[in-house]
């Protein structure tokens, strides 16, 4: 697959349309990643669950679709867990199986008094199961485990085990808020609470793709619960984004620890949406690993790829850290990425009269360095030879201002209007900071201070060979522990 903008490392479908990651679960030695999928075109269509597996989170093998639309509806987003103890009674005794909770979506219309018809979609939560993780059957022929509740946007069930209260919890988006359900048998569910009114960011569209988990605080004792929520429009820099809340959860009620008007973004780029975490990762691992759709609803249907459309971001490990403004969620590239790359290191000093160019003969490059700005100094990173993406780092009173500029005109009005951007974010960090940048065909992912802050952006340069040009506006700048990493070894799924 040598298509111009097909990534080398990031997961893509061989052909067709892909969006939200679904049903992320570790089972029988493999990470299973399901996803919203339409195999017959590169634009959104009747939703299936696509399916890919990996032993290392880096290289993925695509399998046939797991779930297909039928008379019970299209198969919208959801989650998967291992039923270790056959709680549902759906599996052979003493043999665990997989459960996939998804939203079944039925398109219906209602005739008004004036004779016109309007859309009246039915969304309800359904269940499928698999003994081996490969072949799937819909529970009760697709009948819902939670029927529609009257809200046309009632979707994306995330199911977790809550150890403290010894019950299963389902988190579902319902319009502009989240609903929490409880069950002891994974089949019968009871609504116990709601969250989200007047909390966080809201827009015309519904909240989507929630996730809920407990995280340890780096370097400190204690944990907090994190609730992730997708917002399909109106994010910090236009279009879709993923926000999060930090608080307590007792198995029924989520309590937000921040002021209701506080909005926390998981990523500051344009293309990081519908983040979901893997369930049932072995206890000795201890990581909270996530996958994210790397796109934006403003232009996702018109991206300049050919056989496929959309990719997943590099899997990341989430962590909690204490920032100057309180606890925040950070993201590290999974350690498996380091194992897939080879490295070389050096130090560089350069001044306003110089520019440093770092190129790669391969289509993948990871660039890392530690930089220390002087007051008022600006470090500029031009990505690719045609400067398709630019980052500027400016020392300011409140910390470091990061400016992101993306260029690109592709001949279609919607993408040509919404894809280019120029926005700024001020991060509460000191003048000395760490940069880690992963460049692949079609994307650039930037982590700052070992993942405390991240920027994920699609980018489609004329020439896809990775290159980074570094310059400084005045005086001199030392780049220490500079590493350039490239692909190493053989691809293995």
Summary of the model, kept short:
43% of the residues are buried. The strands form eight sheets. A six-stranded antiparallel β-sheet has the order 25-36-27-32-33-34. Strands 26-35-28-29-30-31 form a six-stranded antiparallel β-sheet, with no helix packed on it.
Low-confidence regions: none
What is the CATH T-level topology of the largest domain?
Tachylectin-2, Chain A
Find the count of extended strands (DSSP E, 2+ residues). Answer: 36
What's the CATH superfamily of the largest domain, by name? Glycosyl hydrolase domain, family 43
Q: For the report, how would you describe the main beta sheet?
A: 6 strands, antiparallel
CATH class of the largest domain: Mainly Beta
Beta-strand residue fraction? over 45%
Task: Quote the average pLDDT.
Answer: 94
CATH architecture descriptor of the largest domain: 5 Propeller
Distance between the amino and carboxyl termini: 16 Å
Secondary structural class: mainly beta
Helix percent reads under 10%
Q: How many DSSP helices?
A: 2
**Spatial strand order of the main sheet:** 25-36-27-32-33-34
3D shape: globular
The number of domains is 2
Task: Give a topology summary.
Blueprint: E1 16-27, E2 30-38, E3 48-54, E4 61-67, E5 74-83, E6 97-106, E7 109-111, E8 117-119, E9 122-130, E10 137-138, E11 154-162, E12 167-174, E13 177-183, E14 190-195, E15 207-216, E16 223-231, E17 241-249, E18 254-256, E19 264-265, E20 273-277, E21 289-293, E22 308-309, E23 316-323, E24 326-333, H1 335-339, E25 341-351, E26 355-359, E27 365-372, E28 378-383, E29 389-396, E30 399-406, H2 413-418, E31 421-427, E32 432-440, E33 443-448, E34 453-458, E35 467-472, E36 476-487
């Amino acid at each position: 697959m040598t298509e111009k903008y097909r990534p080398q490392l990031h997961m893509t479908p061989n052909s067709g349309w892909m969006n939200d990651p679904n049903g992320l679960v570790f089972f029988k030695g493999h990470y299973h990643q399901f996803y919203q999928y339409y195999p017959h075109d590169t634009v959104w269509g009747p939703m299936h669950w696509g399916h890919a597996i990996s032993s290392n989170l880096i290289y993925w093998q695509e399998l046939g679709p797991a779930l297909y639309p039928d008379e019970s509806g299209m198969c919208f987003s959801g989650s998967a867990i291992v039923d270790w103890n056959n709680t549902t009674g759906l599996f052979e005794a003493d043999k665990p199986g997989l459960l996939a909770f998804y939203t079944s979506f039925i398109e219906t219309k209602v005739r008004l008094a004036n004779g016109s018809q309007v859309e009246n979609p039915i969304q309800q939560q359904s269940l499928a199961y698999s003994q081996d993780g490969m072949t799937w059957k819909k529970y009760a022929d697709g009948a819902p485990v939670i029927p529609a509740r009257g809200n046309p946007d009632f979707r994306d069930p995330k199911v977790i085990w809550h150890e403290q209260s010894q019950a299963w919890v389902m988190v579902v988006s319902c319009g502009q808020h989240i609903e929490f359900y409880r069950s002891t048998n994974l089949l019968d569910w009871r609504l116990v609470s709601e969250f989200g009114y007047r909390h966080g960011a809201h827009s015309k569209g519904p909240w989507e793709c929630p996730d809920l988990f407990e995280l340890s605080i780096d370097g400190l004792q204690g944990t907090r619960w994190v609730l992730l929520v997708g917002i399909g429009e109106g994010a910090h820099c236009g279009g879709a984004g993923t926000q999060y809340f930090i608080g307590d959860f007792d198995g029924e009620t989520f309590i937000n620890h921040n002021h209701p008007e506080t909005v926390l973004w998981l990523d500051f780029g344009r293309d990081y949406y519908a983040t979901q975490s893997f369930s049932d990762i072995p206890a000795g691992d201890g990581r909270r690993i996530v996958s994210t759709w790397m796109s934006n609803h403003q232009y996702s249907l018109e991206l300049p790829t050919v056989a496929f459309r959309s990719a997943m971001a590099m899997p990341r490990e989430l962590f909690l850290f204490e920032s100057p403004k309180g606890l925040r969620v950070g993201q590290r590239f999974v350690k498996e990425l380091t194992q897939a790359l080879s490295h070389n290191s050096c130090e560089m000093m350069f001044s306003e009269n110089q520019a440093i160019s770092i190129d790669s003969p391969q289509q993948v490059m990871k660039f890392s360095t530690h930089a220390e700005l002087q007051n008022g100094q600006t470090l500029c990173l031009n990505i690719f030879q045609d400067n398709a993406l630019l980052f500027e780092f400016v020392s300011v009173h409140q910390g470091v201002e990061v400016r992101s500029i993306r260029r690109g005109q592709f001949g279609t009005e919607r993408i040509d209007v919404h894809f280019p951007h120029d926005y700024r974010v001020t991060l509460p960090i000191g003048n000395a900071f760490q940069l880690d940048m992963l460049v692949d065909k079609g994307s650039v992912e930037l982590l700052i201070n070992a993942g405390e802050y991240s920027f994920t952006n699609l980018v489609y340069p004329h020439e896809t060979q990775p290159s980074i040009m570094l310059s400084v506006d005045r005086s001199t700048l030392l780049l220490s522990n500079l590493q350039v990493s490239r692909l190493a070894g053989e691809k293995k799924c």
